[in-house]
Every structure is written in structure tokens, then in C-alpha cells.
Amino acid sequence: METFSHLLYGFQVALQPLTLFTCFVGVLIGTLVGVLPGLGPVAAISLLLPATFHAPPVASIIMLAGIYYGAMYGGSTTSILVNLPGEAASVVTCLDGYQMARKGRAGAALGISAFGSFIAGTLGLVGLACLAPPLAAMALRFGPPEYFAVMVLGLTVLIFLAGGSMIKSLMMACFGIIVGNVGMDPITAQPRFTFQMNILLDGVGLVPLVMGLFGISEVLLNVEESLTQREIFETKLKGLLPNLRDWKESLWPIIRGSVLGFFLGILPGGGAVISSFVSYGIERKLSRHPEEFGKGAIAGVAGPESANNSATAGAFIPLLTLGLPSNAVMAILLGALMIYDTPPVPAW
Amino acid sequence: MKNPDQYAGIFWILLGGAITISSFFYGVGSFSAPGPGFITFLAGAILTLLSLVLFISSSKSKGTGQSLRSLWEGRQSGKAFYILALLVAYMFLMTPLGFLLSTFLLLILLFRVQAAYSLKKVILLSAASTIASIIVFDVWLGVQLPRGFMGYILF
Q: Are the C-beta atoms of B103 and B146 separated by less than 8 Å?
């Protein structure tokens, strides 16, 4: 009953005109960002974060979250039309989405991508609302031993996710710990590695760090790569709405993708990319016509697109309940929540 | 040294060693009463050890065929360094020149990096972006942007 009343209060806040407008702006920006290859939600959120400092916290958080959701959907547009994934999570959509476009079915692909993203995002939010309270109640019982265990878990997950050299990952973990200790010692108040700069007394700021690491670096990486010519497949976008047969072939992939993406999104580092790949693999395995995958099977678009959108909802669970960001976007949102003085974990 | 990891190993050995020594002077303390340098001493020591392992393993390995130069091949790294230099200059010049002028100049130079637009369009876009930023941040959000020497003219 308490969950229901909290939900009603949440709707009361979220359905205010200003909040709806900022949500629309956030999703619009996110979709545009997702369409643009190379500029991801991480860069967009980190660059727009300072713009929200003087805005109401609720509207700001909704806008930033909207950017994330919009980007997950927007990546499919260029995947389908140009065979160029706008986002890492939309790479799989290229396989069948572009082939559908070549067959003159770009409209159906775009349509099912949009509907699948919407359904999966909604189902993911329902899951978030249902599972977040029990996890939050558990978080309130955390004491120093539990927080230490969470720190060890965070570092363990970091090492687990390390691709390539384990030694380099461990080195970066150590360096991260060192950078995190820059500032005043909380017990003795002695400055550590501040180099007599007052600005470092509070430690290395999260916002400049995130903006520099993700925002500026992504721009520099794109500048380094020379622009390549991409074939833009010209066709008429007729029939944006999927027909009955498309729905019949896409319904179960959407449902499976939603569930799969939600639970994989909870895992730190997993998120949208892995869930889209896993969803594609599952749909191909379960399909009655697996030979059609890679040649324009609509299930190959519906499943992964649903999975990556549902993963965005799942990614919020460790952030909102345990204060653990599961990916780079959540890390920036954590910084935003702390800036707005609304930390996800009460002890913070 | 043919392996780029060898250079990285040396760098991190030196940095980790410096951090470890500095942390020692902060005071390490004990496990029951840790000093200010406790965590950084341990992290620095582990970093130095791992860097040594990286250096040794990269020296012994046959290598992936990648040299330090090959890491930069095929990339327009000059542009990236140019943009970095622009951003550093922007950081230093924002206070004396003011947000308006420094941002306008920065945007012009940044737009010209890829040379995708004509000069007229670049100036127009830069002016529009700068003015929009001032309206959003200074006027609407009330952020105190540096005025610079042009402050008495425009604000």
C-alpha cells in the first residue's frame, strides 16, 4: 500500500507541466544524440549537466534520465537507415534493420523499434518500481562492514569487467583509489596531493572528471578519425506502422527482450550493449526461421531494441538503492544527484 | 624498447613510486590507527609492483607487432592535440577576455578544425552559439560568467 501511495506521489510530481516539458526536451535531445554516431548519452549528459544546476532538481534529473532513454532508441535510426550504429547498443540492429531497409521495409523496422523501445521501457519501469523498495529497505541497514563489502564488490566488478589485460585494469583501479584520496584527510584534515591548490582541498571534482573523461575524450576521438563515406540507402519511408504479421513476429521477442534487458541492466557494466547482443542470440536460437536472421528478420530488430531500452530501467536499480552506478551514465547521474543534494543512499 | 607497454610500465613505476614515497611522508600509521597516507601508500605500492610486472612481462613477450608509432598511425592526432591546446588556452584566457569573446573565438577555431563550413557560416554559428549560451547560462540560470575587460561595455 505504501508503494502505491509513493507511486501516486511520484506521478503527482512527474505529471506537472514543467516536468513533462523537461522530460520531452530530455528525450528529444537524447534521441538526437542517439542518432548522431559518436556522440553518446554519456557525452550529452556530462555536457548538459552544468545547465541543470539552477533548475529544479526533479526536472533536471528527469531531463538527464530522458536523455539516456532517448539515446537508447535514437541509435536505431542510423543503424536501420545508414548501417551506422548511433550507439554501441544499436550495433546489433544494423544486422537486420539495414537489410529490412534495403528491402523497402525501413518504415516497419523504425516503427517496431519505436514500439518495442516504448513497451520495454515501460515494463522496465514497472519492474524498477516493484523491486526498488525491497532493495532500498535493505540498503538502510547498511553499516561500515557492509559499505566496505560494497567497496570491495565495486572493485571486484571493475576487475571482472576488465577487457584485455588484467594487470592494466588492476593498475587503473589503484590509480583510481589514489585519485579518490586527493583532498583533505577526513580524520586529521591533512591535505593529500593537493599541491597547495585550494581547489583540490575538496578532492577531484566528479563533474570535471566525468566531463573530461567521457565528454571531451569522445569529441577528441571522433576528431582523430577521418570521416568515411557511408552509403545512405535512399528509399521511401512508407508504412511506418508495423502490420499484423510484423506484430505477430515481434511480440514475444519484445517481451523476452524486456525481461532479459531489465535483469542484465541491473548488473554493473552489463547494461544495454550486452543485453542487445544476448537478445539477438536468443531470438536467433528460438526462431523457427533462424536462416532469415541477418537478411531482414524483424525479430532481430524488435528483441535487441527492446532489450537495450529495458536495460536502462534496470541500470537505475543499483544506483537508486545502493548508490552503485552500473555504467558510465549512471555514474554521471550519481554525480548529478549528489550535486542536487539528493543522494540515493541516506548515509551519503 | 619495441613494446609500447614498456614505456607505460616505466611511467607508472615512476608515478607509483613517487606516490608511495610521498604517502610515507604524510604518515602511514598502523592498521588500527591509519594515518593520512595509509591508503595511498598501499595503493601506490601495489601500483608500482603491478607496473613492474607489466614492464617485465612486456619486455619478455614477443610483442603484438605494435610499436609506439603504430598506435598513432591512421589517426589525425594533430587535430586532437590542437583542440586540447585550444581548450587549455580557453581556460587561461576566459578570465581576462571574458566569456563572450573567449567563447566566440574558441568556437570559430573549433569549427574550422574539420573545415566543414564556410568562414561566413562559422562566424554566424559561433556568434549564435555564444549568444545562446549567455542567454541560457547568464541571463536565465544566473551563472556568474567572467566579464573580462569587455564587461563594462556589454553587461
A: no
